[in-house]
Amino acid sequence: MVNRKELDPEESPSARFGQRLRQLRDERGWTQDELGTRMGCTGTHVSAVETGRRPPTQRFAANADRVLGTGDRLQRQCRAVRHTALLEGFPDYVAQEVRAVEIRLFELGIIPGLLQTPEYAAAVTRGEVLRGASTEQQAEERLSKLLERQASLERTPTPMVHAVLDESCIRRPVGGPDVMAAQLDRLVEFAGLPSTILQVAPYALGERRAFHLPVTLLTLPDWSYVAYAESALQGRLERDTRFLQPLVRAYHQLQAEAMPQAASVAMIEQLRKDTP
């Protein structure tokens, strides 16, 4: 079959689900469109789940079990997928992040993942485990994926990364003084790279701050935009230009109102001096 993607069930829980779904579909001699019609979705949706580009929802798995006559087998497998540390929508985002020519970040309360030191990232995930928000396995998965994303920034050509951090990001202690000191040093190093810009959005901005939630904007090789944002339960990758244009304008406003890079670095360096 032309353009049939090979599946590796060992790659992730989503890949195992996709491989099983394809196997069941093939056994019945159905195309993705035919399965989608029976399930009440599109063949494109089926393809995205089979290839791991889109994680299955419980509703999708229940419909698949009904159509394929597999009891609750796929629903049980879906629960294993949903138990992963990666939010719904995040794998779609990562697939675009590794292609982006420009990455624009805004973060609140915590240093963005792409700028975290390993020790800072480990402290964040350890806190989630202690709160019962994730398991040890999920924490390891998240750290592994973060290291992969950071390594991808070293690709050629190097993407331009513009990070605007709310002042809370650099003032909130994470992992103890040594971890925080190293993290502040990392931010200063990041600001000195030729392909980066770092700004702090000070508390003084108050209600003028353009965003109330973290947001990421990617510029793709064709100079189109996608945006990614997260709630506590899921992530969403937005491609609709009707929603993207206001986000891009708001980010430009944020860049204009945030502290210049030199002043931002000076603030971080002063905090570093004050860190025991």
Q: Can you give me a brief rundown of this structure?
A:
The chain is α/β, with parallel strands linked by helices and 276 residues long.
Structure description:
This protein has two domains: 13-82, 434 Repressor (Amino-terminal Domain) (Orthogonal Bundle); 90-112 and 154-274, 2-Layer Sandwich (Endonuclease, Chain A), CATH 3.30.870. It starts with 12 loop residues before the first helix and ends with a helix. The protein is elongated. It is 51% helix and 12% strand. The protein has helices at residues 13-27, 32-39, 43-50, 58-68, 73-82, 90-97, 118-131, 136-152, 167-171, 177-191, 241-257, 261-274, and strands spanning 102-107, 160-166, 196-201, 215-219, 225-230, 235-238. The longest helix has 17 residues, at 136-152. The protein is an alpha/beta fold. Strands 3-2-1-4-5-6 form a six-stranded mixed sheet, sandwiched between helices. Helix 7 packs antiparallel against helix 8 and helix 10 (177-191) packs antiparallel against helix 12 (261-274). The model has no long low-confidence stretch (mean pLDDT 89). It is built from twelve helices and six strands.
